[in-house]
Amino acid sequence: KKRIGFLTSGGDAPGMNAAVRSIVRVATSRGCEAYAIFEGYEGLVTGGDMIKKFGWADVRGYLAIGGTLIGTARCSSFRQRSGRLSAALNLVKNGIDALIVCGGDGTLTGADILRQEWPGLVKELIDNGKLTTEEAAPYETLNIVGLVGSIDNDMTSTDITIGAVTSLHRICEAVDCISSTAASHSRAFVIEVMGRHCGWLALMAAISNDADFVFIPERPPSENWESEMCKIIKKHRLLGKRKTIIIVAEGAIDRKLEPIKSSYIKDILTGIGLDTRVTTLGHIQRGGRPCAYDRNLATIQGVEAVNAILQATPETPSPMIGLRGNKITCQPLMKAVELTHQVEVAISKKDFRRATDLRDPEFAE
Ligand code: F6P
Fold first, then answer.
1. pLDDT at residue 1 above 90?
2. Which residues catalyse the reaction (predicted)?
3. For the complex shown, is ipTM > 0.90?
4. Ligand 1 pocket, residue 151 CB under 6 Å
């Protein structure tokens, strides 16, 4: 009988609760036990009442609720080996032999480190007298499954992450609201959206909202973008457009890798006579009810996460559940994490072509 622990970590994402509900119910119906680990890795490091057995009824009503009801944190102690050592001890003490983590890039990187260190951590706990050889014996391997929950859609090897579509809807609604006031006053708006180092939300929002210009980290604008942008905007204005919408990803950079600031864009637009405002959408992009797509995605991926644990082989002990071409995928966590880090490396080397390619799951194959 498997005892499956699960946690949500990093920035919350709409749909995380649906994933938790799915894990608990599928695990229970397959004869496993499901353990909620509260406050992300923090709960794993702390143990005690931060780890609690969940049954069918504990996740009633979870589907439609935003955020994550089991809590999340950006945990610094789990980044230290000593933190991961307590996490390992808490897993063994609670009899947990499989772990499902739902979070973004940082969360899955943490899971991958735990996966790499696992037998060593258990050995160290035996060596320092925290566990006996008998107690540790059933925990030679730990199956870890990653579910990608992040509004940023910044993980390679998957088309979409849990929460990204809800967030995009939220942005679209907000830009619709801004558009009507912008058109009324014939104003320009520079709208900053989240996404960390990933431009997916910005790019999709720009396409969905008829933006005049978009700034994303993976494809910095040309050296003379200021004049190019102004030329395009003037053309649109001559065609009768009464509003100007510029979408800026929070991680947008120029070709020298310097951040592109919304206030700077505002100054440029003011310079060509446009009455300009800056709106940073902030956390409204992350909170609130998940859309139907995210509820479905998280539910199906929760089922697959439990399946992956029950079908784990020594060759695939720790997969990441993704989606490609509308089909659920299950691939090595290690590879997905590594490819995601390569995007940042490519950007830091100004190899923007490679950064864009790496974002494509097809390329990651
Ligand atoms: O990763 C999700 C995200 O919302 C990013 O888009 C953003 O950069 C970051 O988290 C904000 O984090 P915090 O809520 O800790 O300020």
1. no
2. 152
3. yes
4. yes
Whole-number Å distance between alpha carbons of 327 and 159: 10
In the chain, the N- to C-terminal Cα span, in Å, equals: 34
Establish whether residue 194 lines the binding site of ligand 1, counting it when its CB lies within 6 angstroms of any ligand atom.
yes
Task: Give the residue-averaged pLDDT of 159-187.
Answer: 98
Distance of alpha carbon 309 from alpha carbon 288, whole angstroms: 30
What is the C-alpha separation between 354 and 170, in angstroms, rounded?
30
The structure tokens 């989240």 sit at 194
Ligand 1 atom 8 nearest Cα: 196
> Catalytic site residue 152?
yes
Dihedral angle computed from the Cα positions of residues 232, 235, 239 and 242, in that order, rounded to the nearest 10 degrees? 60
- Of residues 361, 2, 364, the one with CA closest to residue 161: 361
Q: Which two tokens stand for residue 114?
A: 């735990």
- The atom number, within ligand 1, closest to the CA of 194 reads 6
Task: Examine the pLDDT at 364 and tell me if it is beyond 70.
Answer: no
pTM of the model: 0.95
- What is the distance, to the nearest Å, from the Cα of residue 171 to the centroid of all Cα atoms in its chain? 16
Q: Please list the alpha-helical segments (H only) found in 239-291.
A: 262-271
DSSP class per residue in 126-182: HHTTSS-HHHHGGGS--EEEEEEB-TT---TTSS--BTHHHHHHHHHHHHHHHHHHH
Residue ranges at the known binding site: 11, 74-75, 104-107, 150-152, 187, 194-196, 250, 277, 283-286
For the beta carbon of residue 176, count every other beta carbon within 10 angstroms. 11
Residues whose CB is less than 8 angstroms from the CB of residue 283 and which lie 6 or more positions away in sequence, other chains included: none
- Choose, from 12, 97, 112, 152, the residue flagged as catalytic: 152
Tokens 């049954």 -> residue: 55
Identify the CA nearest to 279 among candidates 206, 205, 189: 189
- Give the pLDDT of residue 314: 79
Name the pairing type of β-strands 244-249 and 276-280.
Answer: unpaired
